[in-house]
Amino acid sequence: MKAEFNTPWIVQRADPYIYRHTDGIYYFTASVPAYDRIILRRAASLEEIRDAEEKTIWNKHETGPMSCNIWAPELHFINGGWYIYYAGGEKDDMFRIRPYVLKCTGSNPFEDSWEEMGPMRAAEKDEFSFTSFSLDGTTFESKGNRYYIWAEKVGTGKQISNLYIAGMKTPDRLETQQVLLSTPDYEWERKGFWVNEGPAVLIRNKKVILTYSASDTGANYCMGMLIANEDDDLLDPGSWHKRSLPVLQSDPAKGIFGPGHNSFTVDEDGRDILVYHARTVSEIEGDPLYDPNRHTMLMQIKWDENGEPVFRF
Fold it and tell me: In angstroms, rounded to a whole number, what is the distance separating the alpha carbons of residues 299 and 265?
């Protein structure tokens, strides 16, 4: 792969998600600065994704649900079908954010049309999931079971964003009630806002590696990590072990600020790659959420003697 690491690779694309399909084709999607649509790129290599055609596959509604703040789309291939998980708000209540699902009508996610499946649905008798500000849903399979992890705010006043996990019944419905995985325990998760969000999963060395993002979306943004053994009960919070320090954070010497909201992929040589967004300046005028200059970057993941990932610029 010839793409440079830890430098803006695709500019003004936040919350990046790259999926490499079984045929070797790469797909890229991300939040766009206007937060008004879902885009998709495809190419035969990571290097080619950077300059590949970008196609809008879905546009926000004019009113009601999904009419603003279209955030963090992810493309997944589940049981032979293509799905996109994303979050959206309402024009008249822009932070009434909820998770939604799109399904491709055919076998080609770039060429075929997409249809709305509606909101992600909680399991029967689950009175809590998706009732408040909820976003950043991701899904993964382990030992024949499929799981959904997302961020949801709780509390009154200045709410706290936690991470939850549940089993999935169908691509748009949970099978089990939510389980709390992580809450902002540490000072580095509480800068500006108390936030855990943007979960991403990588399974290697019989470990389920969960990275997430913390604090506000400016230079304070950083990555945390939890790890579970693949053979353990992933719906038992005791199976997960949380790192007490961030695994990736701003590095002024490298000119990288607010790294986070990552995904994982592999390059053409099979090396594990971290896909993340970051800024190249520390000072932002106004609300950092509406500054467009979060850029997609790539990093080659290293591995330590315990089979755990090391993220280093």
Answer: 10
Among candidate residues 15, 74, 136, 189, the one labeled active-site is 15
First-to-last C-alpha distance (Å) of the chain? 17
| Burial call 34-70: b when 16+ CB within 10 Å, e when fewer | ebeebbbbbbebbbebbebebeebbebeeeebbbbbb
Alpha carbon distance 47, 267 (integer Å): 9
308 an active-site residue? no
Q: Which of 140, 170, 162 is nearest to 74 (CA)?
A: 140
Q: In a structure prediction context, what are the per-residue pLDDT tens digits for the chain, which is 313 residues long?
A: 566 899 999 999 999 999 999 999 999 999 999 999 999 999 999 999 999 999 999 999 999 999 999 999 999 999 999 999 999 999 999 999 999 999 999 999 999 999 999 999 999 999 999 999 999 999 999 999 999 999 999 998 889 999 999 999 999 999 999 999 999 999 999 999 999 999 999 999 999 999 999 999 999 999 999 999 999 999 999 999 999 999 999 999 999 999 999 999 999 999 999 999 999 999 998 888 889 999 999 999 999 999 999 999 9
Q: Which one is catalytic: 152, 189, 197, 267?
A: 197
**Catalytic residue list contains 197:** yes
Taking the C-alpha atoms of residue 70 and residue 98, their distance in angstroms, rounded to an integer, is 10
> Alpha-carbon distance 46 to 299, whole Å?
12
Q: Which amino acid is at 103?
A: K
State how beta strands 93-104 and 81-90 pair.
antiparallel
pTM: predicted TM-score of the whole model, two decimal places:
0.97
Q: Residue 20 — φ and ψ, nearest 5°?
A: -105, 120
